[in-house]
Hints:
The structure is a homodimer.
Chain A: E1 6-8, H1 17-33, E2 40-43, H2 45-53, H3 60-77, E3 90-96, E4 106-110, H4 114-121, H5 125-142, H6 148-162, H7 172-190, H8 198-212, H9 216-225, E5 233-239, E6 250-255, E7 267-272, H10 278-281, E8 287-288, H11 291-295, H12 297-314, E9 318-325, E10 328-336, H13 341-353, H14 359-363, H15 372-375, E11 378-379, H16 381-385, E12 389-392, E13 394-397, E14 400-406, H17 409-417, E15 423-427, H18 435-439, E16 443-446, H19 454-462, E17 465-468, E18 474-476, E19 481-483, E20 489-491, E21 495-499, E22 504-506, E23 512-513, H20 519-531, E24 535-539, H21 543-551, E25 557-561, H22 569-580, H23 584-608, E26 613-617, H24 631-641, H25 645-655, H26 667-672, H27 674-693, E27 699-704, H28 710-731, E28 738-743, H29 746-750, H30 752-755, E29 761-764, H31 766-774, H32 778-790, H33 807-821, E30 826-829, H34 837-845, E31 850-853, H35 858-871
Parallel strand pairs in A: 14-15, 15-16, 16-17, 24-25, 24-31, 25-26, 26-27, 27-28, 28-29, 29-30, 30-31
Antiparallel strand pairs in A: 1-2, 2-5, 3-4, 3-5, 6-7, 6-9, 7-8, 9-10, 11-23, 12-22, 13-17, 14-21, 18-19, 19-20, 21-22
Helix pairs in contact in A: 4-5, 5-7, 6-7, 13-20, 20-35, 21-23, 22-23, 23-27, 24-25, 27-28, 34-35
Amino acid sequence: MSNKYVYLFREGNASMRELLGGKGANLAEMTNLGLPIPQGFTVTTEACTQYYNDNQTISDEIKEQIFNALKELERMTGKQFGNPENPLLVSVRSGARASMPGMMDTILNLGINEEVVQAMASKNERFAYDSYRRFIQMFSDVVMEIPKPLFEGAIDEMKAKRGVKLDTELNAEDLKELVVTFKEIYRREHGSEFPTNPSEQLIEAIEAVFRSWNNPRAITYRRLNDIPSDWGTAVNVQEMVFGNMGDDCGTGVAFTRNPATGENAIFGEYLMNAQGEDVVAGIRTPKTITELEQTNKQAYDDFIMYANKLERHYKDMQDMEFTIEHGKLFFLQTRNGKRTANAALKIAVDLVDEGMITEKEAVLRVEPNQLDQLLHPNFDTEKLQSATPITTGLAASPGAATGKVVFTAERAVELHNAGEKDLILVRLETSPEDIDGMTVCYGVLTVRGGMTSHAAVVARGMGTCCVAGCGELVVDEENRVFETKDGNQYHEGDWISLDGSTGKVYGEKIDTVDASVSGNFARFMGWADQYRQMEVRANADTPKDAKQAREFGAQGIGLCRTEHMFFAPERISAIREMIVSKTVEQRKKALEKILPMQRGDFEGLFRAMDGYPVTIRLLDPPLHEFLPHTDDEIAELSKEMGLSFEELKNIVAGLHEFNPMMGHRGCRLDVTYPEIGEMQTRAIIEAAINVTREGIKVTPEIMIPLVGEIKELKYVKDIITRTASEVMKEQNMEIHYMVGTMIEIPRAALLADEIAKEAEFFSFGTNDLTQMTFGFSRDDAGKFLDEYYSKKIYENDPFKKLDQTGVGKLVEMAAKAGKQTRPNIELGICGEHGGEPASVEYCHRVGLTYVSCSPYRVPIARLAASQAAIKNPR
Amino acid sequence: MSNKYVYLFREGNASMRELLGGKGANLAEMTNLGLPIPQGFTVTTEACTQYYNDNQTISDEIKEQIFNALKELERMTGKQFGNPENPLLVSVRSGARASMPGMMDTILNLGINEEVVQAMASKNERFAYDSYRRFIQMFSDVVMEIPKPLFEGAIDEMKAKRGVKLDTELNAEDLKELVVTFKEIYRREHGSEFPTNPSEQLIEAIEAVFRSWNNPRAITYRRLNDIPSDWGTAVNVQEMVFGNMGDDCGTGVAFTRNPATGENAIFGEYLMNAQGEDVVAGIRTPKTITELEQTNKQAYDDFIMYANKLERHYKDMQDMEFTIEHGKLFFLQTRNGKRTANAALKIAVDLVDEGMITEKEAVLRVEPNQLDQLLHPNFDTEKLQSATPITTGLAASPGAATGKVVFTAERAVELHNAGEKDLILVRLETSPEDIDGMTVCYGVLTVRGGMTSHAAVVARGMGTCCVAGCGELVVDEENRVFETKDGNQYHEGDWISLDGSTGKVYGEKIDTVDASVSGNFARFMGWADQYRQMEVRANADTPKDAKQAREFGAQGIGLCRTEHMFFAPERISAIREMIVSKTVEQRKKALEKILPMQRGDFEGLFRAMDGYPVTIRLLDPPLHEFLPHTDDEIAELSKEMGLSFEELKNIVAGLHEFNPMMGHRGCRLDVTYPEIGEMQTRAIIEAAINVTREGIKVTPEIMIPLVGEIKELKYVKDIITRTASEVMKEQNMEIHYMVGTMIEIPRAALLADEIAKEAEFFSFGTNDLTQMTFGFSRDDAGKFLDEYYSKKIYENDPFKKLDQTGVGKLVEMAAKAGKQTRPNIELGICGEHGGEPASVEYCHRVGLTYVSCSPYRVPIARLAASQAAIKNPR
C-alpha cells in the first residue's frame, strides 16, 4: 500500500501538526472552521524525509499525488494551472512542525509565464508585471540561489532612472522592463532560460523548500530552539490571493493580543497594494490594523470576528496573516503568537481570569527560557532620569541594554569571540542572516521596520532588547558610524543604551539594576510552584548572590565554589604562601591565615540562607591557577614573597600540567594535602556553630569534588568527620552536617552503588561529566564544534543542553544505583544544565531531589521543574 | 559462636592457604606428610583483618586462642615459655597467601630474657648470647622500629676491637658485652627497658608482623605483583631449632631443581653455625648443598629424600628452608620455587615428560609476565666476542643488559624519571629498600651475596638481568665510582654491560640482538595455543615491527598508528605544509605529497602480514604535535617554509590547546578536514590493490579513532567508503575491507548499541578510556598517584592493569551492546592492557575476539589468553 504524501486542506486538522507542519495543520483547521481560506494542499513532512532518503529527489509516487491534488484544486477554484485564460497561480511555502519564522523559503505567484502574464496584463497590466517580477525574483533566489542583491540592484537602478523612491511608484512599463532585466540576470547567472512550464516550476519550488530545511540559518535556528533536524518541513501549495492588485488590496499581519505587553486588544499592521513579505520586511512603514476600520469596515469587522473565533478556538493568543483582494478578506495563516515574557505571563494570567484555561494549563503556556528576559537588569531609574535620549524608535522588544556599538552581525560575533560581551547591534534593518550576531548582542537597534519586522520578531523571541524603526538615524555600516539628527556621530565601540520598553536610545552607558519577581510574574510562579516536585537551589559563592537567589525563590545553595573566595588580593597571597610551602607545617601556617576569612564567608552565606541547606564544595581547581605564569609576573611575585625568581619559576613549572582539566585538582588536592580539607572543614563547622548561636538554622552539606573511587571519598570524608568532631568538641556544640560527593567523573557514576555507601548526597557535576564522557574539553571544543553543528553531527551544545542519551545514561545509572544503596540519598545537579529547561525536565524524570543553577535562572528552573512534573507525574 | 583464629600445624593443610597463608598451610601439610617440622601454630589472615578492623589491636578473644595454642605447644615440646630450666623459644614469622620474599618481618629466638639466657649459657654460653643478641636486634628493629645500623655499628665496633672479620669469630664474652650494648641502645632509643616478659614479647611481635603488612616496601611489592591489600598476612609461631649452636649446626635454603636453568638437580646453599637470614643476606659466602654430603651424610640423604617427596607431592619445583641442629635436619618451610622464565619453561616441559603433570597443567605453571625475560634482546654474539670482561660474578638472573652505571636506588629512580632509561644498578649488596630502583634498571650488579641473595632472588622475579657476588670490585657508593682489580675506574654514567647468563661484566656498551621463540619455549607455546580462544594481534607501525610480531606468533596487526609514519624528516615537512594551508586546495596538494609515502608504508605492512588482518587507525594526534613550540624552532621552520615568523607563530598559537588530550584530534580531524581521511583511505586501498596484484592476501580494517557519536562515525565512514569505491573503480579491482571504530570515549561505550550499526568492529582503546573514565591524564597523574598508592586508595596503576570495576564496566557494557546490534561484530583491545595478563583474562571473560599488544608482549598475551580460556571456559 502506498503512503499518502499530499493532503488537501479540507482533509486535515489541527492535530495533524507532525505530518502537515504547523502552517498546514492550521490552514486545514481554519478551513474546517469555515474561515475564508484560499484553498490548497499540503505536501507532508514525511515527503520531505522521503526526499532526503531518496537522495534529494521527489519520487514519482509523490509527484503523482501532488499533481492529483493540483487537479482537485483546479476543480475547486475553477482556474487552471498554466492556462492564460483563467490561470491558477499558487504560493509555495514551507511549514515545519515548530514555527521557524523567516528561516525557510516562500515563493509567490507561481504559475506565471510569458503567455499567462500577457493574458493577466490585458486586465491589470501593473499587477501582472509586478506579480511576474516578484515571481522571477523569488524563484531565482529560492530555487536557483541567484543572489538577491542582483535583482534589488536592478530595481534601485530603475527607481533612480524614474526618480522615484518607492516600489509602488514604478508603473507597469517600468515593471515590464524589469521583467526583461530579471530574465537576463537569470540567463546570465544560471546559464539557461527562465522556466516557462508551471508544473516544472512547481516541482522545483517544492524541492527548494525541502532543501531550505537544511540552509545554514535554519540549522542555526534549530540549534538555538532545540528543534530536531530529522523532523523535516511540509510544503503548502495554496491558491494565490493578491494584495498587490491595487489600492483596494493589501496584506497584513495581526495578533489577537499585544505580543509585547499582553494587553487584550487586537494588534497588527497592514500595507495596501502589497504582497507577501512587504509588511514584515520593513521596507515601507505599515499602518496599524485599527486604521483598516476606516478604509474597509466590512473587512475590518470580519477580521475581528474571525480573530476572536480563532483565539477562542485555540485558547491562546493568535498571530495571523491576511490578504485583502479587492476588498475581500482572506486568512493565509494562524498560529499561537510569539510574545515577550511579560506578555506571556499577562496572557496566561488573563486567560485564567477569563475562564478560558486552568491554572495548570497556564503553567504550561510560558516557555521557561523566556523568563530570562525578566530576570536581567533594568536601568537604574535615577541614572535614567539624568540621561537624555538621542533618538526614539519603536519599543520592539522590552528590557534594558547598555553596550558598545557594532554595525554588522559578523563583527559582533568576532568581537564576542574576542571577549567583548557588551555589544549593541545597530543595523539599517536585520535579515535572517544576522541571527548569529543578534544572539551575542545585548540589544538591537534598527533604522527601518516596524513592530513585526524581522529584528523585532526575532529579538522578542530571544528576549533581547530591541528598538526598531529609528528613522532619524543615518547609519553608515561601511564606515562603522551612525549620525543622529543633530549631527552627533557614534562610532564602533562607543557606548549607547537602549530601553526596549520605551523605545528610547541614549548615547551613553547607563547602569542597570536587578530585576525582581512581582505582579503577574509572582502570581504565575505561585501556580507553578504548586506542581513542582523538585527543589530548586542556586549556585552562589557570596552572600550577595545568595540573597538574589532567595529573592528569585531558591530553596538553598546547591553549589558554593570555595575557590572563588580566594582570589581577593588580601587572600591570594596567603594561598600562594600555602602553595610554595615546603613542609606541612609551613602549609598549615599559611592555611591558618585563610581560616578566619573562609569562616567569615561561610557565616555570611549561612545567614543569607537561614533555614535552607548550603552545599559547600571543597577546593577544586589545580593550584597553578593561583600562581602567575609570565616571567614578568613571576619576577614581581617572587620579590613580594621573598623568593628568588628561579625558585618561584621552578615551583610554577613543577605545577604545570599537560591537561589541567584531568590533573591534580578536586579531592586529589585533599588526598595529597589533607591540611587543606582540614582548614576548610574547620571554617565550615566553626561558621555553622557561630551562626547557630545567633539563632540561625543551618545544615552545611560538605561536598567532595572529582571523586572517582570509594576509597578516595572515604579518605577525604575521614578528614572532614575527624575535623568536624574536633571542632564540635572544642566548641561544645553539635551541628548537623552532611558529607556527599560530586558525581562528575564517569567512574564515579559507574560505581555509584559503592560510592553511595559513603556519600549522603550526590550532586551531578554535569559540566565535567560532559567533558569526560564526550572526551572533549569545553575550552578546546569550540575549535571543532561549529563543524559538528554544520555537518549535523551534534545539534546542540552539550555544555548547554544535557546530552540525555550519553551523559544522561550515566546520570540515570548513578541515580538509580545511589538510591538502591541508600534509599534516602539526596540527588542534585549543579552543572549549568540545572537551569536549562529540557535538562531540568530530564532531571525530574530520573528522580533527582533538586536542581541548582545560577541565581538568575532560578525562576526558569522553578517553572521548568513545574512543567516537568505536570507532564511526567512521578 | 566465636571464630577460630589460631590453628596448630596439625590442624591445617595445603588447601587452607587463604586462611593460614602460604607458609602456614605448607607447614601444616608437611606436618601431615610426616616431615621433621618444629611444631607450632598459625594466627590466621582473618586475625590480621580483625586486627585492622579493631583499630590495630589484637582482641582478647584472639589473645586467648594464641595462649591456648602456646600451651598446647608447650605440652607437645615438653618445654615451657619463659621457664629458665627448660625454655621454649619460638620464631614469629609472617606468611601471606602469596609469597612475598623479604617483604615482611621475622623475629627469631623469642622467649629469651635475662633469666633464660643465663640458664642457657650454663650449657652453651656463646650460643645463648648469640641467640639473645639476635633476638634483641630483631625485636628492636621489627617491633620498635629502632634503626638496624645502630646495632650493626655496635657489632662492627666490637669486631674492630677484637681485630676479627666475621661474626662467628666473636666469642661468648664479646656477645655478652654486645647484649649489654644492645639493651643500652634499646633503652636510649625507646625510652624504656627491653621487655622481659615472653608473653608480652610474643603479642608485640605478632602485632608487628601484622603491621609489617603495610610497610612501604610491602605495599610496593604488592602493587608490582598484583596482590590485594585486603588479604592480610598470617603469623606463624614455631618452636626454634638452632643452626647457631656450633659447627655441627647450620641453616640453608635449597631448590629441588635449578631455579636459573630448570636443570633437574638439587640446588642450594647452607652456612654452618648460622641462623635465619645469614644465608640469604649474603654476608658470608655459603657452601653448596652438595658439600653437605661430606659433612653430614645422614642429614644430606634425609634432605634429598624429603625434597623429592615434597616435589612429587606438590608436583612442582620446591624452594625449601632447613636447619640442622646438632646434626639433625629440620624443615622450616617449603613453597613452589621462584624461577627464571627459562627454568619455568624447562621445568614445565620436564614435568610433562616425566609424566608428573598434563600439558594443560603445564600451561598454567608459567606466569605469562615472566616470558618477558625471554623476549628481550641478548648480546650480539659477534660484538660479544670482541669484548673482554672486566670481572666475573655469579650468573644470578639471566639476560643481557647494557647501560650506564648508577650507585643508589634513589638515584636510579631520579635519573629514570628524568628520562634516562639505560641504567645498571651497581651495589655492594641490595636490600628490600632498593626494590623501586631495581625496577627501573636494566640490570643489577652486586659485590656481595650468592645465588639466593636478595638481589638475585628479586632480579629473577622481575626478569631483570643480575650478576651477583663480584667480590673483586671495590665500590665507593658515596663517590659514585667502582674500581676493578686492575685499577680501572667506572663512574656514574659510564657504560657497562652485564651477561646474566654467564656472570660476565663488560666495561663498555655492547649491542644486543632480538630474541626468538624456540626449543622448550616453542614447544610450550604450542601447548598454550591449543587452549586459546582469543586471537593475539600486535600493535605495529613498521614492517620491521610487523615481522618481529609474526615471529612471536601475532595473528595480525591490531593497531597501526599512522601518525608514527609522519615524523621522518622528509615527511614531516609535507605534514607541516598541510597544517599551515589556508585553503582546502593547498591542503590537498600537501596531502598528495604524503600519499605515495603512506601507500608505501601500508604495502610494507601488508606484505609482512600476508594472510592476516591489518588494522589501520586514521590520524589521531592533534596537529600541533607536528609543529615546533619554541621561538627558536619556529623561527627556523618559518624560514624553511617561506613564512614570516609571526605567521607561523600565529598558526602555532592558534593550534594551542588547554587540554590537548581532550582537544581537536582523532576523527575530529577528519570531520573538519575530510581530505585527510580521503588521502589515508586512498593510500590504504591503493596499497591493498597493489599487493593483491603481487599475490598477497590482505584485509585492511580501517579504524576511526575517538568516536563518541554514531553520526560522527557515519560521517567519517562515508568519507572512507566513498574514497574506497572511487579507488576501486579507478583500479578496476574490488578489495574486501572493513570499517570500524575505537571505543575509547566513555560516550561511545555507553552508546555502543547505536555505534555498532555503523561499525564492523570495535577496538577498545583502553589507554584513553582509562583517562576519560578516571578523569585524569596519564601525563599528569604521576604527580598524585604515588600518594594514592601509599594511602591505599588505588593499588595498581590503572594504565598498566585494566581497572576491571570501572573501565571494565564500560568495556563489558559496550561488548554486550555491540554484539546485540551486530552478532558477528569483531571485538578487540589495543590499549597497553592487551599485553597484561590479568587484563587479557578479563578480555577473555567479556568475550573479546582478540587482544593486540606490543610485539614483545605477544607471547605473554598468547599464554595469558590460553590460561584465561583454561580457567574460564566460554
